[in-house]
Write a structure and sequence with these properties.
Strand content: 15-25%
Number of strands: 11
Mean pLDDT: 90
Structural class: alpha+beta
Low-confidence stretches: 1-5, 201-207
Distance between the termini: 35 Å
Oligomer: single chain
Order of helices and strands: HEHHEEEEHEEEEHHEEHH
Number of domains: 2
Length: about 270
């Protein structure tokens, strides 16, 4: 639990987001609604039933509550944005749970889940389904993974400080939401580089990055794949007893590490 006198990390996030009071909803979402609205497997229903404590629609962002226009195209349907907060009984299946909720709720969604004084932020770019125009399909997930509110590192602190809605692009709900996506990518990149840097057109800005968001997303995906390959090679190395095969595995691991370093330098 948070130390006495220490502000809970979720409260830090609400203050940092600085959303207008007109957006505040605080409406309870019952698990039954989630279970009925989603095409869930028996295992996913178990995750929802056992792991969620409370689920609250904290803020609703739509033209009636905030001065941001809608965006609707053949592929994008950004008519409003939901900000939802879930408290968990257990943090063990958080990654699966946020994927379930993101797929079940047909809105661009800023999902924040917490357990004790730990917090996880989940975003997902969604596009209209070709098979069903009434559905939004998840194109990509962007997750913070767990942030410990008792000991957040400097990158995590900078992420929270960057969430001020006044600093996002209010052109429409899509550009507004992509501002949050860019910040999540900056967090993910910062965990590799040690610096929290947003794409920023202003030269000389210490927090700016020359790497476009889409390029950064691709670089991070490539790094994740290489890290998985490196992990698999290391697991094989632990089991291997033949000297020549161990040597080959060590060389492959070294090549992976070099590739990861090169991609990290490009972030």
């Amino acid at each position: 639990m948070a130390d006495q006198g220490q502000q809970h990390i979720t409260e830090q996030v609400w203050q940092a987001m600085n959303l207008p009071d007109s957006c505040l909803l605080n409406s309870r979402i019952y698990k039954k609604m989630l279970l009925e609205s989603a095409d869930l497997s028996s295992n996913d229903k178990k995750v929802v039933t056992e792991d969620i404590d409370t689920l609250v629609w904290r803020y609703t962002l739509k033209p009636e509550t905030i001065n941001i226009p809608k965006l609707h195209t053949d592929e994008l349907d950004y008519l409003e944005i939901a900000v939802i907060h879930g408290t968990l009984k257990s943090p063990k299946r958080a990654k699966r749970l946020v994927e379930i909720i993101q797929r079940a709720i047909p809105y661009p969604l800023v999902l924040i889940i917490s357990h004790d004084n730990m917090l996880w932020v989940s975003l997902a770019n969604k596009r209209q389904s070709l098979a069903d125009s009434q559905k939004l399909m998840v194109e990509a997930f962007f997750d913070s993974n767990w942030i410990d509110g008792a000991v957040p590192d400097s990158i995590e602190q900078e992420l929270i400080a960057s969430l001020d809605s006044k600093h996002l692009d209010w052109s429409n709900f899509y550009t507004f939401y992509q501002g949050y996506v860019a910040r999540m990518l900056a967090l993910q990149a910062g965990r590799h580089t040690g610096q929290f840097r947003l794409e920023n057109p202003h030269e000389g800005d210490a927090t700016s990055s020359a790497v476009p968001v889409r390029d950064r997303q691709t670089l991070l995906q490539d790094i994740r794949q290489l890290e998985e390959e490196e992990s698999s090679l290391k697991a094989s190395l632990k089991k291997e007893t033949q000297f020549n095969l161990r040597l080959a595995l060590n060389m492959s691991i070294k090549r992976c590490q070099q590739k990861i370093q090169k991609l990290t330098n490009d972030l």
